[in-house]
Design a protein that fits this description.
The protein is of the alpha/beta class and 250 residues long. It has 11 helices and 8 strands. It has 2 domains: 192 residues, no CATH class; 39 residues, no CATH class. The two termini are 35 Å apart.
């Protein structure tokens, strides 16, 4: 029997989303590892939300994902406004660290793919140092020729990792994981931009404070005033929230 889901899936203005308390993350991860499926986990940013609204293919990917977790305060605020429910916000890199700790505690394994060869090798070393109980069963740079893709997928399948962690440089990003899901053995897949650049020390770990992240984006918009056009999606998002509150959530 498949374990009971601890997450609650909602229809957030036509986009599937999961409400999952951080305290339930470990149990949920371990449950997913028992269901004999390739389980894709997606962190949904505001940009991804907009993409899902306009792309049927991407929305289908989200429909079939095991977990779709909000990584934007705009989205979690929208959930509170429409459904009156609090929702944990999952900052990309922090979720990766939490998942690695969960996998290490439970003697699980990981395969990493992304970035260039030097960065991925440094990430491999640092991961082994930081998580000695985590079995790193393989790694690959994402800068490979098209002819090599089948060999890489076969290597992933043979190593049968608990988590396939993909990073920047992987063509297709979430779509690559979705497109090849039937070729992988049961486990988890997650695409996380910049994770290997942070593991290798090439980039700084992003701030956990949402206010700092917001003001960073605001500062960049002021420096680049032509980006004022990006205010339109934010405006439409809030208009849609009001519309759904008044007419759709009855």
């Amino acid at each position: 029997m498949e374990p009971e889901r601890l997450n609650s899936r909602i229809n957030f203005m036509k986009v599937p989303l999961d409400i999952l308390e951080e305290n339930d993350l470990e149990e949920t991860i371990l449950h997913l590892l028992l269901n004999e499926k390739s389980n894709q986990i997606v962190l949904l940013s505001f940009r991804d939300y907009l993409k899902a609204r306009s792309s049927k293919d991407f929305r289908k990917l989200l429909d079939e994902a095991a977990l779709v977790l909000p990584s934007s305060s705009l989205i979690t605020g929208g959930i509170k406004f429409l459904f009156g429910r609090d929702s944990s916000i999952y900052i990309n890199y922090d979720l990766v660290l939490k998942m690695l700790s969960i996998l290490e505690r439970n003697g699980k394994s990981i395969y990493i793919i992304g970035s260039n060869r030097k960065t991925i090798l440094t990430s491999e070393k640092n991961l082994k140092d930081s998580y000695p109980g985590l079995h790193l069963v393989g790694r690959s740079s994402s800068f490979y020729s098209k002819d090599s893709e089948n060999d890489i997928i076969l290597a992933i399948k043979k190593s049968s990792p608990s988590l396939l962690l993909a990073g920047s440089g992987l063509k297709g990003k979430n779509n690559w994981l979705y497109r090849n899901r039937d070729k992988f053995n049961p486990g988890l897949t997650l695409w996380s931009p910049d994770c290997f650049e942070i593991f290798s020390g090439k980039k700084k770990r992003p701030s956990k404070k949402l206010s700092k992240r917001f003001f960073s984006r605001l500062r960049h918009s002021i420096i680049r005033p032509w980006k004022i056009i990006y205010l339109f999606p934010y405006l439409m998002f809030h208009i849609n929230l009001i519309f759904y509150k008044l007419f759709k959530n009855k």
